[in-house]
């Protein structure tokens, strides 16, 4: 074999190896894309199923006509075959839009909106996965050499996304009436970051984390905001419940506040080092308020009835009371 023939053979073999490696790499990438698409569909299917379950729960607390229609379309969406899924899910979205969200119990409203948020995210992830897979499959060389193998071509699920921004976001929160040895209550003075001129006084506490019970949330928030460490079972209550619509940082909320009672331990001091960046920017001071102080002040205090309710907090009879 001459040198020229040997060189030609080496070049040809090198090209075969390079092309073979490219084919294998492309086929593997397609396989990974199909796996990604399958996983995205499984997540979307689970999110849609959860929404249907929550929708059936909602159907039991709304008016009879709407409840019947909602239950029917939710069950239809759960049973729908893949080919009929778009129609069934779009009908469920349409009927859910008729539900008066603020009229629902806060926990159920929060569950519904969370299910819808997760559905929207899962749909977008699935759409991205389908797009990337189809882009790769439609390349000429992939089609000519059938590098996709026998894997079926994935398809989009064209369902309408609910307009979630139209609804106030549910926000359950746990708050603490922290009293000192003179029965004075600790209040913080803060403001909305978008409206610094609107200042108000409020109790320690904050939002309940997913999966967290109210009592645990109240103890956690108390420690984060005051440095006072109490076991959840030390808290008394909840004494009061307050339902309030409010806005913060430009977003509307449907809030439900649950108030617990606690005593400041003798050796404890208020320490706000645990404030988040947002709290540090929006809370200017804190102080102890007596009932006399509350009745005399012209400043805004939440809850509005605190001056009236504070004297009875220490003799709580076990009845949960709705307050403003």
From TrEMBL:
<dbReference type="InterPro" id="IPR000086">
    <property type="entry name" value="NUDIX_hydrolase_dom"/>
</dbReference>
<dbReference type="InterPro" id="IPR020476">
    <property type="entry name" value="Nudix_hydrolase"/>
</dbReference>
<keyword id="KW-0812">Transmembrane</keyword>
<keyword id="KW-0472">Membrane</keyword>
<dbReference type="Pfam" id="PF00293">
    <property type="entry name" value="NUDIX"/>
</dbReference>
<protein>
    <submittedName>
        <fullName>Uncharacterized conserved protein</fullName>
    </submittedName>
</protein>
<dbReference type="GO" id="GO:0016787">
    <property type="term" value="F:hydrolase activity"/>
</dbReference>
<dbReference type="InterPro" id="IPR015797">
    <property type="entry name" value="NUDIX_hydrolase-like_dom_sf"/>
</dbReference>
<keyword id="KW-0460">Magnesium</keyword>
<keyword id="KW-0378">Hydrolase</keyword>
<keyword id="KW-1133">Transmembrane helix</keyword>
<feature type="transmembrane region" description="Helical">
    <location>
        <begin position="6"/>
        <end position="24"/>
    </location>
</feature>
<feature type="domain" description="Nudix hydrolase">
    <location>
        <begin position="169"/>
        <end position="312"/>
    </location>
</feature>
<dbReference type="InterPro" id="IPR020084">
    <property type="entry name" value="NUDIX_hydrolase_CS"/>
</dbReference>
<comment type="similarity">
    <text>Belongs to the Nudix hydrolase family.</text>
</comment>
